[in-house]
Structures are given as structure tokens and as C-alpha cells.
Amino acid sequence: MRKPVKKGIIIAFGELFLKSEGVRKLFAERLVRNLYFFLKKGGAHFKIHFFRERIFIETNQTIKAKKIIKKVFGIAWFAENFWFSDINQLIRFVGGNYPDWIKKNETFAIRVKKDRKIIDKIAKNINRKVDLTKPDKELFIENRNNNWFLYFKKIKGAGGLPLGSSGKVLTLMSGGIDSPVAAFFTAKRGAENIWLHFHSFPLVSNASIEKVKELAKVFLEYQPHLKIYFIPFQKAQMEIKAKTPAKYRILLYRRLMFKIAQKIAEKENCQALVTGESLGQVSSQTLPNIKIIEEIVKIPVLRPLIGFDKEEIIKLAKKMGTFEISIKPQEDCCTLFVSKHQTAQGDLKKAKELEKKINTSRIIKEALRGVDWQF
Ligand code: ATP
Ligand code: MG
């Protein structure tokens, strides 16, 4: 009995050729799991088949599936695809259907990796002109363990590595424009995100908290689940404001934030902190000040935006869909407590001296007591 032709989407992994066989298998399994999650969440009917270097999503809802797959990290490209259980089935199918794909006056080329002999057999049934250099239509054919795939147009995938394949990071999420973009880049390279947001509620409105929750909804289109820590920071800020000069306050806030973040990271098994800092963007992001802030923690700090201009970051935020949320007004918990005259050239000794005036361990304990988290 002849099996019916299966329709769906073929997926090619990104960068997995760089990995050993064992790692590749783990990464591929992770990708399959993520695809399964997002397709299910999107309400698609599908089946997933896994071949050594390809994944085939069997589905009739290709438009819906393509939209979802486009956002899944770890995919180099994907294409609408037909799947055949033998070559004769493929030859017959192409012979019967090519007028739907290649118009009368159009040229075509058949691209096959190996098995070059089959090209003639397939082309023989196509009554159109061949052009191997600049064809109007390309027919890609692949053979994987006697499963034959036919597809036409490759669509660029989200790239990167399957989410979850690079461990976990704790992203310091302010609700501004930069930190969501930083989170996106780490997720793209396979790092699962947990978020941490410092707020000054009820001293200010809960706008920043609401913004972070809204940003999370966008981020959840890329990462299956997201845990967020909300930490009250107003007491820390009030104490720092009362006891230290304006020039150093932002550095002291940041050091405290990092210290608390490190504690949460340890608890959550996160291997790095992530921030949205970009070199020289504001006075707290100069090299001397980055050094002072980072000195307080042992954990690595990743800054995916370090080399980006603000304009570039805004463009990325718009593409991701976070920009409109990020620009909603909020009383930033730092701007509220900070004067315009910050030092861009802080001195570590001085910062540490000032820090002695504040009861850091008590502040940290209190802040951690107020912690609230949610998925
Ligand atoms: P963003 O747009 O991400 O807020 P920014 O340009 O406003 O960045 P800063 O306010 O100097 O820069 O903050 C630098 C980084 O410190 C942020 O990208 C973020 O990672 C972290 N950060 C700042 N404020 C908070 C906060 N309230 N909660 C958590 N992280 C914060
Ligand atoms: Mg900010």
C-alpha cells in the first residue's frame, strides 16, 4: 500500500555542526522539546519527527506553525516541506504537481546534496526550462535514511542555540529599554532566564512592576516559562541617600543590587548575572564605574549590549516587541533617589568607605525578606 504524502515543515539546526555528536544530540532534544511546547501552546495540531540533522513537523497548519517556529531559538532555517517514504513517490508527486509551483515561463533548478543521479529522473517529468545559475524556482531535495524531503523556499530562523542548552542566568530587569533586549540576547544563545526587578513600591506607584510583568508576556513567546523576583529597594535607597553624598549614590545602589542578585543567583543555580549596560551610555556605565560595581560580586556579569548604540538597541527592542512597553512612564527606583551629578570616575576605596556607613547586611536581609516572585 502506498503511504500518503506527509506535509509540514522541515527544520535545520543552527550551529550544531560545531558540536560533538553527544552534545548535538542533547541540543537537538532540547530543541524538539521547545518546539513541542510552543506549537502546543499555539494550539497547532502536529507531530514531530526527528532525523539526525533535521526535524520534521508534520502538520497541515503550516502558516500557523511557521509563525511560531520563527521565534524558536536554535534554528538556522526552515521550509514548508513534503515528506515521502520512497523516491518513486517523490518523482510521481513532482511530475503531477510542478505546474502549481513553477509557472509556464519560469525556469527551475533541482538541488540535491548527494544522489545526483536522481536529478535527471525528476527533471524528466518537469516540462519547464532548467537554469542552474539563476533559476526562478529551486526544488531542494534531501534523502535522510530513505526518507525523502522536498522543499522550496528556505526561511531564516531565529538562530542561536536551543533555549536551556546553555544553563541559567539571572537578568537584572529594570523595565527600561535595554534590559529586555539583553535578556533576549542571552536567551538566543541558549541561556534560560530568571528575572530580578528592584522596585520602590509603595513609595512610588507599582508601574515598574506592571511593566516588568508586561515585558514578561512578550518574553514568554521565546522562553517557555519565566520566574521573576520582585525585590523592594526603597529602604536601601533611603538609607544610602541619608548617609552618603549624591556623587556616589548610584554606584552604591548598584553594588547593593549586584550583591543581592548574586544571592538569588546562587539559590537558583544561575551561572551569571545579565545587565542591559552599554559602555559609556550613562555615568554608571563607564569602565571605572563598571569595575567598582562589579567588584562586589564573584559571579560573572554578562553585558550583551556593551557595544551597541542606543539607536541600535531601540531598533532591536522594536523588533522584539518590547519597546512600546519599555517607554511607558515609570518612576525609576534609581532616578528618584539620584541627583544629576554622578561621578563618571568613581574611586573604589571611596565607595567602600562610604559603604561602611550603611548597614549593608541588614539592608540585604530586609530586602530578601520582602521578596515576591511569580511565574
Ligand atoms: P534599562 O533600559 O535596562 O533600564 P538603562 O539605560 O536605564 O537600562 P541603568 O538605569 O543605568 O541603565 O541600568 C543599568 C542596568 O542595571 C539595567 O540595564 C539593568 O540590567 C540594571 N537595573 C537598573 N535598574 C534596575 C532595577 N530597578 N531592577 C533590576 N535591574 C536594574
Ligand atoms: Mg533604567
Automatic annotation (TrEMBL):
Q: Name one GO biological process term.
A: thiamine biosynthetic process
- GO molecular-function terms, A-Z: ATP binding; CCA tRNA nucleotidyltransferase activity; tRNA binding; tRNA-uracil-4 sulfurtransferase activity
Q: Which PROSITE patterns match?
A: THUMP
| InterPro entries according to UniProt | Rossmann-like_a/b/a_fold, ThiI_AANH, ThiI_fer, ThiI_N, THUMP_dom, tRNA_STrfase, tRNA_sulfurtransferase_ThiI
Q: What is its EC number?
A: 2.8.1.4
Q: Which reaction does it catalyse?
A: [ThiS sulfur-carrier protein]-C-terminal Gly-Gly-AMP + S-sulfanyl-L-cysteinyl-[cysteine desulfurase] + AH2 = [ThiS sulfur-carrier protein]-C-terminal-Gly-aminoethanethioate + L-cysteinyl-[cysteine desulfurase] + A + AMP + 2 H(+); [ThiI sulfur-carrier protein]-S-sulfanyl-L-cysteine + a uridine in tRNA + 2 reduced [2Fe-2S]-[ferredoxin] + ATP + H(+) = [ThiI sulfur-carrier protein]-L-cysteine + a 4-thiouridine in tRNA + 2 oxidized [2Fe-2S]-[ferredoxin] + AMP + diphosphate
Coiled coil (UniProt feature) = none
Locations listed in the record: Cytoplasm
**Main subcellular location of this protein, as a coarse class:** cytoplasm
Residue ranges annotated for the THUMP domain, each copy included:
63-154
GO terms for cellular component: cytosol
Q: Which family does it belong to?
A: Belongs to the ThiI family.
Q: State the function annotated in the UniProt record.
A: Catalyzes the ATP-dependent transfer of a sulfur to tRNA to produce 4-thiouridine in position 8 of tRNAs, which functions as a near-UV photosensor. Also catalyzes the transfer of sulfur to the sulfur carrier protein ThiS, forming ThiS-thiocarboxylate. This is a step in the synthesis of thiazole, in the thiamine biosynthesis pathway. The sulfur is donated as persulfide by IscS.
Record-given protein name: Probable tRNA sulfurtransferase
Q: What organism does the UniProt record list as the source?
A: Candidatus Nealsonbacteria bacterium CG08_land_8_20_14_0_20_36_22
- Organism taxonomic ancestry: Bacteria, Candidatus Nealsoniibacteriota
